[in-house]
Amino acid sequence: MDQGDFSVIQNCFTGPVGGSFWPGVAPGCERYDRDRDDDVDSLDVVEFENCATGPGVLLDETSLPTDCSL
Ligand SMILES: [Ca+2]
Fold it and tell me: Which end of the chain is more exposed for a tag (fewer CB within 10 A), N or C?
């Protein structure tokens, strides 16, 4: 996960009340709703950032960054 992924989560960002065009999150944005409460808000962004690895570095699910949970 890197800046490229961050640009995607920015496009999926709904704020705490969910999307204005979609009920909940837009199609394709479901994986960014990390706490599964039908929005992509700052709490989801923090969870996302906890799993950041660096430019071009794939997330290794067998060796997650310290604060990352999937
Ligand atoms: Ca959420």
Answer: C
Q: Ligand 1 centre from 65 Cα, in Å?
A: 20
Provide the H-helix boundaries in the chain.
Answer: 3-12, 42-50
Give me the residues near ligand 1 (ion), CB cutoff below 5 Å: 33, 35, 37, 39, 44
The two structure tokens encoding residue 65 = 């960054």
Banded pLDDT at 44 (limits 50, 70, 90)? very high
Global pTM?
A: 0.77
Residue 15: name the closest of 39, 44, 50 by CA: 39
Rounded to whole angstroms, how far apart are CA atoms 46 and 62? 21
- 67 CA to middle of ligand 1, Å? 17
